[in-house]
């Protein structure tokens, strides 16, 4: 602690901010978990008992924490700075030589542990407990994942040789999966394969499939229909022959893994940076649009550092005089600031997606806007 915060005032500010942050984070997480539990009560039936529903909600807490940390940091730091201002403690620190530059440096140090905490929750603990939570719920309800489309999940894949293995060749394969079971088994599979001229080569359907450890899909009860163009003198009137075969089981190499299928069922905003990066690579390899996932990727990269922006937004409240308003009004102002940032951040992402703006710029503008507002506010109140 002394090594990281060598000055006494730094340790004092860090202790006050962390204490307020912890209390507010606990209160906000408890509030959100309460509402999540209420919304989950409608699904309680059979083997999915109330304790399991509560466990399902509790395992989602790390994801909630990663979402709430910046807001808790803003409200907690506003409360601390408002209290310091009301007791003239911050005035004493300013007289002792605490200028804006040193104050910002101290806030940067204070924000680092919170940034690490956010990364742990959003990138490692959150996705793991979220997956475990869904598995517990699915096992109790006996349900399976399915997409928002009535026909299931659609994904684009690269085409290989006729037996489904071998090197990649020109063409494309569209894979349709009806359901994904809790053990990564898939049901109701259909595949449509086209050559590089988008002529239909085959239609393959399977009742079920599973992914083995060697990276191969094992499809069961497969029906395959292959189309072949017969040589004709008239190229404008081609004739095709169809050959239908049935197999009890076949092996198929594919770039579509259970992880990619799972990604398709999760909104990009709830994915980890690693999962987003891997899925963006898959989309780029299949020449698909990556705009939405790229915006989410850069937002996830930048999001932990918005904690420093939130702490900077709170700093001007330390310069306000006591007569400028009570602590309660300042905390309420902090809540409004936090809500406005979240709304602006979400709105700007949608605007950037519609306008096809550069993804990094779309993710960077909201926090930079609020950081500039914080610096302008600091300049203004420090001269008042």
Describe the structure.
The chain is α+β, with helices and mostly antiparallel strands and 384 residues long. The protein has two domains: 8-142 and 293-383, no CATH class; 153-262, no CATH class. Helices cover 55% and strands 17% of the residues. It contains eleven helices and six strands. It has a six-stranded antiparallel β-sheet with strand order 1-2-3-4-5-6. Strand 4 (200-211) and strand 5 form a beta hairpin. Helix 3 (61-86) runs parallel beside helix 9 (306-314). It is elongated. The two termini are 34 Å apart. It comes from Polynucleobacter antarcticus. One of its GO terms (biological process) is lipopolysaccharide transport. InterPro entries: LptG, LptG/LptF_permease. Keywords: Cell membrane, Membrane, Transmembrane, Transmembrane helix. It holds the Pfam family LptF_LptG.
Draw up the topology in text.
Elements: H1 8-40, H2 50-58, H3 61-86, H4 89-95, H5 100-141, E1 153-158, E2 172-180, E3 186-194, E4 200-211, E5 216-230, E6 239-253, H6 258-264, H7 273-285, H8 291-302, H9 306-314, H10 327-355, H11 359-383
Antiparallel strand pairs: 1-2, 2-3, 3-4, 4-5, 5-6
Helix pairs in contact: 1-2, 1-3, 2-5, 3-5, 3-9, 3-10, 5-9, 7-8, 8-11, 9-11, 10-11
